[in-house]
């Protein structure tokens, strides 16, 4: 990337970059035959993936900011600002558009019916070549030699939608065995592509209130994430800020 500047939030190094620079970096690494694992860090990521901090600091891993909570933390804790909000739902289609040729996509995760519809969307609406799928329920548990299957498919990008922290741990556990240039943990992306979950209206997205829209749709599932877990998020941000000062 043109810059390697990071903002440290909750013990993680979050890359300060833009969608244009990030896409350029990923496609360049692909061209060079090098692998990158890409993670989109929101407040839930910081809380749920905290036990993966050391592994996340390895070479070949890029973590970018997703959501207004990360902006709040960067500003309050370090006086920093991110250049752009980056989330998988918007960035993955942007990456596809930046490639001069369709990418070969392997998709892992989601319910079987949702995954089928998401794969059709990636092919018909986004113009990519889906070279394989494996749902996050029966297939991922029982399919023998899944790594070999993915490698034989010669995918350019592997999208893993298993939720935090399962998808991050899965990628970290298996990335050394995969001959795929770009690995990305994409959360609910397949649900959006399949039409199983609606996205917030554009105006709500621009207001950075998409989290509130999702909370209204799924209050039982997301209430803890935006109350108790957000308090934990702020605690971890403050804790690691103090730890960094002590080390200094």
Features:
14 helices; 6-stranded parallel sheet; 16% strand; single chain; 49% helix; alpha/beta; globular; 248 residues
Write up what this structure looks like.
With 248 residues, the chain is α/β, with parallel strands linked by helices. The chain has one domain. The protein is 49% helix and 16% strand. The chain has 14 helices and 8 strands. The strands form 2 sheets. Strands 4-3-8-7-5-6 form a 6-stranded parallel β-sheet, with helices on both faces. The protein has a two-stranded antiparallel sheet with strand order 1-2. Helix 6 links the parallel strand 5 and strand 6. Helix 1 crosses helix 5 (88-98) and helix 4 packs parallel to helix 14 (228-247). The longest helix has 20 residues, at 228-247. The radius of gyration is 18 Å and the shape is globular. 36% of the residues are buried.
